[in-house]
Structures are given as structure tokens and as C-alpha cells.
Amino acid sequence: MTTRILSLKDVKSRVSLSRSTIYRRMAAGVFPIAISLGCRRVGWLESEVDTWLKKQITIRDNCR
């Protein structure tokens, strides 16, 4: 299994949230935490972002 790292640009596109919203949700513990890739670079595990998206869909479906 290959671990894919998503950039902030990729994450923003995939989840349709702004940078500030992503970081705010990370701080609140309701969005996957970024991993450090260097001094000024972070990334997100694609599998964690996909799991978060699936959870959001489940929440939506259970609210109907």
C-alpha cells in the first residue's frame, strides 16, 4: 500500500474548504492533522482526508 501525501492545495480542492477553515478545524480536533514535511511544508495523508470525507457523508445521511 502506497502512502500518498496531499498538499494544502490538494486538500483545499478535495474538501472544498479554505485554508483558514482547515486549520481552524484541525485546532478543534475535527479535521486530520497535517504532518511536517520540512521547515515550511506540511501535508496530509490522503487516507485520513478520505476517511474524514466518508465520515461527513455518513453524518449527512444520518441527519435525514
Automatic annotation (TrEMBL):
Xref: InterPro entries: AlpA (IPR010260), Prophage_regulatory_activator (IPR052931)
Pfam family, one: Phage_AlpA
Domain of life: Bacteria
Protein name (database record): AlpA family transcriptional regulator
